Amino acid sequence: MSGFFENYGFLIVTIVQQALLGLSIYFPLMAGQLSLASIGFYSLGGYVAAVMGTHPALAPLREALGFWMFPLEWLGALVLSVILGIAVGYPALRLRGIYLALATVAFVQVVNVAVLNMPIAGGAVGIFGIPQAFESRLDYIWFFGPLFLLALFLVWRIGNMGRGLAFFAVREDELAAGAMGVAVTGNKVTAFVLGCALAGVTGAMSAPFLNTWNARQGTFDASVTCLAYVLIGGSRSIWGPLCGAALLVSLPELLRPLKDSRMILNGIVLVAACVYLPQGIMGGLAALRARLSGRGGAA
Amino acid sequence: MKRIVIALALVLCAAQSALADKVATPIPIGIAVAQTSNVALFGQEQVNGAKLAEERLNAAGGVNGTKIALVFQDTAGDEAGAVNAFQNLLNRDKVVAIIGPTLSQQAFAANPIADRAKTPVVGPSNTAKGIPEIGEFVGRISAPMTQVAPNSLKQAMKIKPDLKRVAVLYAQNDAFSSSETTTFQDAVKELGLETVTVQKFQTTDTDFTTQVTAVLGANADLVIISGLAADSGNLVKQLRQLGYKGLIVGGNGLNSPNMFPVCGALCNDVLVAQAYSPGAVDKNPVNKDFAAAFEAAYKKGPAQFSAQAYAAVQVVVEALAKIEKETGKKIADFELADLRAALNKSLRTGTYLTPMGEISMAPSGEVQQKDFYVSKIVMNPDGKTGSFVLVSE
Amino acid sequence: MDFAWLLQSLLNGLSIGSVYAVFALGYTLVFSILGIINFAHGAVFTLGAYLTYALAVGRFGINGLLADVTMPVTLPFVPALLVGAVLSGLAGMAVERLAFKPLRQRGADPLLALVSSLGVALIVVNLIQYLVGAEIYSFPADIFGDLPMAVIFQIGGKPVAVRTIQIILFGASLVMLAGLGWFIGRTRGGKALRATAENADTASLLGISVNRFILGTFFISGLLGGLAGTLIGVSFGVAGPYFGVSYGLKGLAVIVLGGLGSIPGAVLGGLVIGLGEAFLPSDMSSYKEAVAFVLLFAILLVRPQGLLGGRLEQKV
């Protein structure tokens, strides 16, 4: 059993890490906003942690704080993400649907180019030799795990209080929500910024986890993959992002024995999942449960 | 009954992993390179070189009569993929050493895993600063190109002594190219030449007309390119098509037969800085054999990535043979952990005559390569194939 | 700031822009009918280049399943281009059948089509690599006969140059645009397409078989993608199975800038972004990659329907 965790520890933690990115898209989706900005904040958060963890000027601070440097990095990423999230959110959230998604894609690309041109970010090589919090990759679950639980709790809590009703009202009908006195823009920006903050902190935790950080972390492909976690997992369930990430992250590893053709099969499974589980894994499970209980009742 | 069997199996498994592993026969050597993703252009060349090494070294007796078996695990193009490939090689395939990964960025993420598992890593294509410093089990055989850049400039000055105005172009999003260009730019200063423009591009770019316009507008008589094969090939092609007549010096990224189909006949006369030269066969019988065998197997001259992957396998095999010789103990009789440690030491002693010439690995893991080369591209009349013709040795 | 420089930058911008425009035409067509972004378009575009290569040159390299295989017959370039384009059109239809139609029928979240088309792209790209490897393929230099490599002329004693292949690409994008415009504006099939785009339910009431026309749209989109892929492959080499996918993102900026779903807008958007990149001062070349997206962000804030987009409605 120890061999299993030795081999798949990294993979397990990666699933939780990616599920966090999925959740960061889930927040704005709760208010009906499709944002693909997460990966940009993830990238920036990673850079914050990477710079704070390696910059020579901060060496005394690191020595003084020891392990507490990591929470400080998260805080740095959080503050930056919230400020930038508000700055981007207010103008961008006037857009709807696909237009908002495209504006956030544009934002991520501009961030990428800007980062590549910032000397402090280390150019194309990026930043490496980032101080490690733990020896084993599996131990990083102590970073991502609590954050994931916290994010889940937030989603659940929001869903069960006034704020959640406001989010859902905005999702279902902006005009009507506005007419009923719901602060449409405020709620949209709040949902958006929550997602940005979560992605930023996830990035800050990921830089030590990967030991290196570079501009390739924030690609367009990664943005779409995060969206895929939510959709494949099931966009109406809070467990959806985790299920989606679990499937999509582990799939290439499960297919390893196929060698050269594994990525072809990976694509086939992706298409099949879309076709046969149009409500996502959680939606499929719910339908299955309904059918089973329906049958049970009839018998 | 079933439960007892399962419990027994579990106990056995636990006992198995608690017991120290022996080295398997044939001796497993891990290859973790990018076989999928858009990095596969390089990864597949590495696979070709490594496969040829396995075949030829085994035919020559392997490690004193014991055969080797390469275990391939695809890293794809990202950091997580490289870590997963390394984990598989370390824990399931129980390899004695890992050759890989393809990109330096991947190495920064994956190599610490092998270092913690006390398993030697031999980087076949990682050239960034800071790779050997990752840990005591991390080494490389791919030289960071600090010496060869000035060499190629000197060759250019030999061809045209009145050179003055230099345009520097580089791929900003490529780790190797962006560090190589600083070496080039320093060398330009040292040689007393004038840099008239510095242009950046992306490895994904295809249209370079704006950069070419800047070069032509600056009246450059020498263009220095640091990029990868596809983008640099298009850059050379468009420079020539739009009327640039001066010399072109390319960095190590242009040292690839993949240039040929892209710029075709317009590749002619580009001077290329090389860590490996398929043309350097006169003083190097190993390279002569290798280049001929590669040509026979693939009907194409070897690329630098292939040669370096070949050399990496060769270095590991020779280091293993050295262990047997020094300890008088067969590799198969070693415990895996002991062998990995011994191999790491053995890799760092002595010299190896590889297709790249004589190389050795410093105790830090940094490669020490004796010869670098400058070649000129000479295209065949068909305009699609060509060769690198040595101009310096 | 002399006239020769202005003219050269203008030509450069048109030359880069026509590459984007050629890519974006097939991309925007599917959006104009279905209101869905087809992420598999880049893969079909790539496939088109490989298919034409297989038909016209027919010799494969040293990697993949087809290593060292030579096709028994090869075609001259132009027929190969056309056959390759038709085959890409069929591939486009397969994309619709695999990734889009089943989702429509099951009433899935329209966003899911982004993921399923991405899945198809993954299949196509990796299948290409599995078969012919990731190496670079190129068409012979004399494919258009003995045309000069570039047209160079003097303005005020300074040379201004444009590559011949860029003129061809620019022309091709205009011809494709005109052909598409004629088809949509003047033919019965085109009118039915527009009706489908306007309102699928009404169209089906009018006796238009919506599924068939959607299939037709994907065929034309694939056909245009295949043509574009080959032309760009001729211009820059077929640089591995990912070469088309890398246009996808900028293509997205192009079609949004021009106006999502507007067909002339795709060409205009391409040219505007090309010109934007060409007129960027040369000491700012490191920011070139951001031009398209800064323009995209700006236009979305000011005029979300894009330069030529008419109606703005909620589709995904």
UniProtKB/TrEMBL annotation, chain A:
Pfam families: BPD_transp_2. Keywords: Cell membrane, Membrane, Transmembrane, Transmembrane helix. It is found in: Cell membrane. CDD domains: TM_PBP1_LivM_like (cd06581). It comes from the Bacteria. GO terms for molecular function: branched-chain amino acid transmembrane transporter activity. InterPro entries: ABC_transp_permease (IPR001851), LivM-like (IPR043428). One of its GO terms (cellular component) is plasma membrane. The chain crosses the membrane at residues 7-27, 39-58, 70-92, 98-128, 140-159, 189-210, 222-251, 263-288. It is a multi-pass membrane protein. This is ABC-type branched-chain amino acid transport system, permease component.
TrEMBL record, chain B:
GO terms for biological process: amino acid transport. The keyword Transport applies. SUPFAM superfamilies: Periplasmic binding protein-like I. Coiled coil: none annotated. Residues 26-378 form the Leucine-binding protein domain. The lineage of its organism: Bacteria, Pseudomonadati, Thermodesulfobacteriota, Desulfovibrionia, Desulfovibrionales. Transmembrane segments: none annotated. This is ABC-type branched-chain amino acid transport system, periplasmic component. The keyword Signal applies. Belongs to the leucine-binding protein family. Residues 1-20 form the signal peptide. Gene3D superfamilies: 3.40.50.2300. Keywords: Amino-acid transport, Signal, Transport.
UniProtKB/TrEMBL annotation, chain C:
It comes from the Bacteria. It is a multi-pass membrane protein. Its main location: membrane. GO terms for cellular component: plasma membrane. InterPro entries: ABC_transp_permease (IPR001851), BCAA_transport_permease (IPR052157). CDD domains: TM_PBP1_LivH_like. Keywords: Amino-acid transport, Cell inner membrane, Cell membrane, Membrane, Transmembrane, Transmembrane helix, Transport. GO terms for biological process: D-alanine transmembrane transport; L-alanine transport; L-isoleucine import across plasma membrane. The chain crosses the membrane at residues 20-40, 47-66, 78-99, 111-132, 165-184, 213-239, 251-275, 287-306. It is found in: Cell membrane. Belongs to the binding-protein-dependent transport system permease family. LivHM subfamily. This is Branched-chain amino acid ABC-type transport system, permease component. It comes from Solidesulfovibrio magneticus str. Maddingley MBC34. The lineage of its organism: Bacteria, Pseudomonadati, Thermodesulfobacteriota, Desulfovibrionia, Desulfovibrionales.
